[in-house]
Amino acid sequence: MSLRFASDSPDAIPLHVVPKDDVEGWTAAQPERVRQWAQANGFDGSLGKVLVIPAEDGGIDAAAVGFGTAADRARGRFALARAQAVLPDATYRLVTELEPGHRDENALGWLLSRYRFGRYRATAPEGAALVAPDGVDADRLEAIAGGEALTRDLINTPAADMGPDALEEAARDLASDIGAEIQVTTGGALLDDNFPMIHAVGRAAASAPRLIDMRWGTEGPTVTLVGKGVCFDTGGLNIKPGASMGLMKKDMGGAATVLGLASMIATLKLPVQLRVLVPAVENNIAGNAFRPQDILTSRKGLTVEINNTDAEGRLVLADALALADETPSDLLISMATLTGAARVAVGPDIAPFYATDPALAAAIRAAGNAIADPVWEMPYHQPYEEMIEPGIADLDNAPKGGFAGSITAALFLRRFVTETPRYAHFDIYGWQPSPAPARPKGGVGQGARAILQALPGVLGL
Description:
The protein contains 16 helices and 19 strands. By secondary structure, it is an alpha/beta fold. The protein has two domains: 13-114, Leucine Aminopeptidase, subunit E, domain 1, CATH 3.40.220.10; 141-459, 3-Layer(aba) Sandwich (Aminopeptidase), CATH 3.40.630.10. Strands 6, 7, 8, 9, 10, 13, 14, 15 and 17 form a nine-stranded mixed sheet that branches. α14 (358-371) links the parallel β14 (351-355) and β15. The longest helix is centred in the first third of the chain and has 19 residues, at 138-156.
C-alpha cells in the first residue's frame, strides 16, 4: 500500500473541481462536445458527482467532480475523496485552484482514500492516484497519511495477532524505521520496577503485560505521548456482555494513535525530544485476575479501590503517567479509548479532550478546526473530584451512579500528573462505524493530526 502522490506526467488526466453554484459558468467555458456530454449525464456540480469526459480515441480526456455547496461541504470532510472511490483507475492532476484549507484537506483525503487493510484477504486496487496539487506540502501530507495508515493497521488487527507481544513488536518495528531507542519492561519485572497496576491488570493473560518506552530525538522541547494499549478487554471478572465485547480489539486505539503520531513527528523530523509510553496488556479472566474490591497501590503511591475490573484502562495509564511525570516534559498527552460516556456525549466522529492549560486547549481547538480533525474540549469539573474518592482508598476506579463517566476518568488520570504543567488527555473512540469519505469502516486515528498541527505554536518551534 502506497499512500503517496503520483509523479506528474503528460499522461495525467486533468481534473476539474466544480462547485454547484459555478456549474453553469464551468459548463459554458467548455467546448461544445463537453457541454453536451455534461448535459446528457446530468452533471450539476452536486457533491461527489463525477463526470468522465471521453477523448476521441476512447480514452479519458478529462474529468470533473462536483464540489457541492458550502453547506454541503460543511456537513462532512474530505469532499474529493468521494470522487477518488469512483473515478477510473488512472492518475489525475488537479487543474482547479482550491482555497488553501480545502486544498490541503482534500489532497490528504485523497491519499487516505487509498488505504486498504489487506492482511487477511486480497483487497481492491488502491484506485485513482493524484499528482500533488500546487501549493501543498506533499512530504507533510504523505507523512500524515503514513502515520494514519499505521494507526489503522494496528487497530484493525484482531487480538489473536495483536496481543501485548505483537504490539511490542510493532513498536520495535517503528523504532527501527525512525531511528528511535526502545526499552520494554515485561511480566514480573513490572513489579520489580514499580508498575504494580499495569501488572495487576495484565497478569491473567497468556501474553505478559509490559510497558513500552520509546525515545526519539536529542534536541528541542520535550514531548511525552502515553497511549492505552489494552489489546483486548473482556472486562475482567466484571465480564462484558457479548455485544459490548465485540469491538474490544480496538481498546488499544490510544496506543495505535500515539504510535501513528510518533511516526508523523519523526518522519517530518520535528525538532523535539519525543518519548512514547505504552502500557500493553490484555484484560482477561483467570484465577490470578484482579478482583472487585481489591485495593491496588499505584506507582505514585496513591491507593485505588477496584469497583469494576472493566475500568482497567485508567489503571494502566496511571502508572505510565506517573512515570512520565517523574521527568516533567514540556508537553504531556495521553490518548485512550477510555469511556463509553465520551461516545454518548459527542458520538464517534469527535475526539473529546481535557487540558490543564487554557492556552494549550485553545491551540488544540484551533488546530482541529483548521485541518478538519474534529476535537471538543471537555471540563475538569472540580466538584466531581469527590466522586472518585471512595473513602476506603485514595481513589475509586469506577464511581457509582453512572454520571459524568468521561470527566471522572479524566479527573482520575489528572491525579497522577502533578509536576507537568501542560497536560492534555484525549478520550477517543478509534473506530469508524460506517464508511465515510477517506475513512473506511474500521480503525481510525482521532486527534493526532490536530496535535501535530498544534505542536509548533505550543512549543515555539
